[in-house]
C-alpha cells in the first residue's frame, strides 16, 4: 500500500472517530436537552462528558461525612442530588449521567405506565463486569426476557416454594441456636450472621444435596462482588476488562470455577440424580418440559442459578438486617410481631410451616437502596505525545543537526527514509552480482548513496528516529570507548528471545556480567574445548568423504547447511559437554524460533501484539519454555553434583559462584547467557566458514597457500589431530579469516543510542538520536584501506591488524573496545579447526550452479526496517491506546488548582505541562549526587535538594509539581499533627503503582480496610509477642557477628569491612523465616484444615501470629489469604529495609563519635556483661535508645511522607482543594533549627535523655516512623532488633571510619549509603 493511500485512510479513520466522539460528547446531549426543555421539563444544564456525576459524587461524599440518626431521612444520604432536584423542580425533572439525560419520575401513574410497557421501557444495559454477577433474567429484554420468564415462573409457584420451607427452617434455626449459646444478653453484629444465613438458605434451596458446592459458590461470588466493587471505583475504559490485569484474571478464574461447579451439578442431574425440589431441579424440569427447542440451554440455566444465588442472598440479607434494626428502634412493633408469632405457633419449639407463615399479617416495609453507577469514558487520548513523537521532536532534532552543518535527508513524517531504503534494497536485490562486485549496494544501499554524496558523517531517518551514520575512525573509537554514554539500543522485543544476555545489557549490569563471563573465554579455558572442536568437525568432514567417494572423486555439495550443523554441534559440545544431546535439541528449537521471528518481522509491528495468543506467538513461547526447561535441567544436574566444568555451562556456573556478596548471576541469567552463546556463536562461525570457502574457491592461489601451511604444521597424516599450538601457528589462515571478516562482516552495521547530549569530535549530538557505524562501508572504504579495498587480499594482514589498519579503528567485525565480542577467540579457533580438516582432505571450487547473493538475515537492518516500514500500524495503535486521557488532566485541572493555591497566598513554582517540576528535581538530584560531602555537612541538600531549595526560597509552606499534581509541603507542627490525626480525610497517596509489587498491605490501605487490618494485626506487634522473637533476633545477628569475628581474626585483630551488605543480609535473615513459612501457609489457608491447626500452634513467627489474630475475628471480618500474604510481604520488605538503614547509620555515627560509642559499650557491659542479650536487658539500654532516636532524627528511613486530598479540606489556616497532595518532609522538619535549636544538624543523643516529648517540646516534629493512628506498627520490632544487633557488635568490636569511607547518603526508597559503609573493625 502506497504511503498517500495509507495517510488518507488514516485521516478518514481519525476523522470518523472524532466525529463520533464530538457527536456523543456534545451534539447529541445538547439536542436532547433542547427537546426536553421545549416540553417545559426542568433539569440541570449539561456539562460536557461528566454531566452531573462530579456534582452528585461531591454531594454524596459530603452527605456521608456527617452521621445521621435512625429518625433522620436517609434520602439525602443515598440520593442527595435527586432529592435536591425534587425539592426545587417538582416530581418530574432530568439530570445527567455523563452525556446521557436521565428523566426522574415520581408520579405513580407515570411509574405504573413505565412498568406496564416492558417492551417499550427496557432494562438498561448493565456494566459488563456486573453481568458476571447479575446476568440471566434480570438483564434480558424483549422476547428473550418473555421466554425466560415463562420458563422460570413455575420454579417460583407457591406449591414449589412450599417444598423449600424445611430448608428455610433448618438454616435459620442453626443461626438462632448459635445466638442462644451466648450469655442472656450480649452485643452481636447481626449483619455477617444474616449474610451467612441467607447464603446457607440459597445453597440448600437452590442446590439441595449439592449445598456444599453451593457454599463454595457463595464464597466465590462474595470475592467476585468485592473485586467488581473495586473496579467500579476506577475510571471505566471500554475493553479494559480484557487486559490481563490481576483483578481481571481473578474475576475470570472465579467465573470459570463457578461455571464448572454448576455444570458439574447439572451433569449429575442429567445423569439421573433425582432431586426436583431444589431450584436447580425445578429449572431443569421447567426447561425440559418446553418443547420445540424453546427450553433453556445449560448455559442459560447456569446464568439463572447465578442470578438467584446473588440476588436472592443479597435481597433477603438486606431485608432482614433493616427489619431487625427498625424493630430494635420500635420496640412496640417488635412486641406486636412477637405476640403474633406466639399466637400462631403456640410453642417456641413448634416448627413454622407454610400455612402458619402465611398467617403472619404484621408487615415490615423495606426500602431498597439505589446505587448510582457513574461510567466515565476516557475520550481524549494521548494526542500530544503522538504529535511530539511523529513531528515536533524529529523536526527539532533535524533543525539541531542542520545548524551544525551536518548533511542528511529531509524528514518525511512517520516513515522517514524507510520506504526509500526498502525500494532501493528491493531494486538492488533484483539484480545479480558477481564475486568481484561490491556487496554494500546490496546490503546498505541508502547509506552507500549518502556516503558517496554527503561524505563520512550524515544523518538519515529510521521512522521518526534520527540516525547519525559515522565512518570516521576517531569518531568510531570515541563511541566504542564511552560504553556508558553510547549504550546499546533496546532490542526488538521478539529478538530478545534469541539474543538476550550480555549482548543486550547496559551500564553496570553489562559490566558485572562481562566481569563474571570473562574467565569463561580465557585462552586456557578455550584450550580445553579443542577436542570438542575436532570431534564435531571431523564428523562432518567424514560425511563429505563418503559423499565424494560415492560419486567418484568429485561431487557438488551445498556446504552451507553442513557448516550450520557443524557449528551447532561444536556449540552443543563446548557449551554443554556430556549434555550435548540436549544442546542439539536447543539448536533445533532455536532454528525454528529464528524462522518464526523472521516471519513476524515481515509483518506490521503493533506494540503488545506479541502477547496475543496467535499460533506463532504460542509456538514461540512454547519453544522458549522448552529451551528454559532443558537448560534448567542441565543447571540442576550441575548443582546436584554432576562434575563437568570445562564446558561453557560449567565455567559460567563456576564464575558465578565465585562471586561473593550476591554479585553472581542467577540461574535465569546463566540460562540467558547460554542461549546467547548458542545463537551468536553458531551464527557467527558458520557465516565466517561459508564465506571463507566461497572466497578460497574463487582464489585458488590462497586456497593452495592455506593447504600448504596446514600440511607443513600438521604433516601429511590426515588423521593427525590439530591441537591449540598448531592451530595458533596457522598464520596464513589467520590472514585469510581477517580478510573474509573485513569483506563479509557478521553484521553490516553496529548501533548505539544517545540518551543525553554528547560531544562526538566536533559534533554535538542531542539526546534521542541513534549512532550507526556501517561496518560493511567502513571495511570497504578506499580512504582507509586503499584503492584495492574491494579486493580479496589477505596479505594486507601479514603484519597483523594494527599495521593493516594503520592503528585506526576501521576494522570491527566483532565490535571494538570494551564491548568487543567476548567469543571472538572461540569463533576463530573453531573456524581454524574446521578449515584445517577440510583443507587436509579436499580441494574445492565454485559450482556452476552457485549464485552470489549475500543478504542480511536476523540482523540489525532487517529488524529496523520491519519495525519502521509499518510505522502506520504503530501510529494507529498509539492513537488507539496511548493518546492523552484528557486535556483536563494535563492542563485545565493543574491550572485551576494553581490559581486556587495562589489566591490563598501560597507560594510555589509555575506549572510546566505534564512534567511539572520533575525535570528540575532530577537535575538538582543528579548534580547533588555527583558531589561527595563530609560527615559534618548537612545531608538535606544532597538527599532532598529541591525541597531544600524551595524551603530556603519560599519558606515553610509552599507547593511544587509532581507531574500535573500540585504537592503542598507543610512544616508547621500543628498542621502536621492535624494531617496525621485525620486518617480518613488525608489518606495515603498511591503515586507509584509499581511499589505495590514490593510493599502493599497495611502500608497502602486506606479507610475502613486500613482500620480492619490494623485492628487484626495489632496483637501481632504487642510487646509480649515481640519478646518471643528475641531468640530469632539473636540467632540472625550472632551469625553475622560471628562471620565478622572470623574476618578480623584472619587479618590479625583489625580489618576493613563494608558493613552495609552484611547488615542488609542480617535484617533480611531476621525476617526470612516468615517468608519461607509463607509459601507453606498459603496452602494451609486454602483449605487444608490439619495444617491450619499446626500453623495456629506455631505462632512465634509473624505469620503464625497473623493467623492467630485473624482467626480470632468474628466470621466474615478476618483477612483473606491474599491479605495475609500481602502483610507478610510488606513486613519482610519494610522491616528489613528500615532496620538495616537504622543500623548502618548508627554504626557510621558511632564511628565518628567515639565518646558515644564508648558510652553505649559501657552500658551494654553493665547490663549484660558477656551474657546473651535478652528482651528485659535490651529494654534497659537507655543510652542506646537515645542514640537510636538521634540517628532516626538525622537519618530517618524515608525523607518524606505523602498524603492525598480528595475533597476540599482545611488544614490550619490553609484551604486545600481536592486533587492536591500533601508532603510532610521528615528530613527537613527533623533538622529544622526553629524546632530543634541551632545544633539541629549535630549528633547529640543527650537531647533525648528525658524522652521524646521533652526533646520535641510536645510538638509533632519527630516522626521517623510516621505519627498518630497510622504510626508504623513495627517500630518496636525494628528498635528491639537494632538494639540486639548493636549490643552484640559492641560486646565484640570497636569500630571507626575507614579511610576509604565516602559519605554519600542517597534515597532509593529509604536513605542508603551510596558507596557502602566501609568501617575498620577492631576485635575487643
UniProtKB/TrEMBL annotation:
Gene3D superfamilies: Cytochrome P450
InterPro entries membership: Cyt_P450, Cyt_P450_CS, Cyt_P450_E_grp-I, Cyt_P450_sf, Cytochrome_P450_Monooxygen
Location relative to the cell: Membrane
UniProt membrane topology term: Single-pass membrane protein
Residue stretches spanning the membrane: 6-27, 368-392
Superkingdom per UniProt: Eukaryota
Cofactor needs: heme
Residue ranges of coiled coil: none
Keywords in alphabetical order: Heme, Iron, Membrane, Metal-binding, Monooxygenase, Oxidoreductase, Transmembrane, Transmembrane helix
Pfam families linked: p450
Matching PROSITE patterns: CYTOCHROME_P450
Family: Belongs to the cytochrome P450 family.
Protein name, as recorded: Cytochrome P450 monooxygenase
Organism: Brassica napus (Rape)
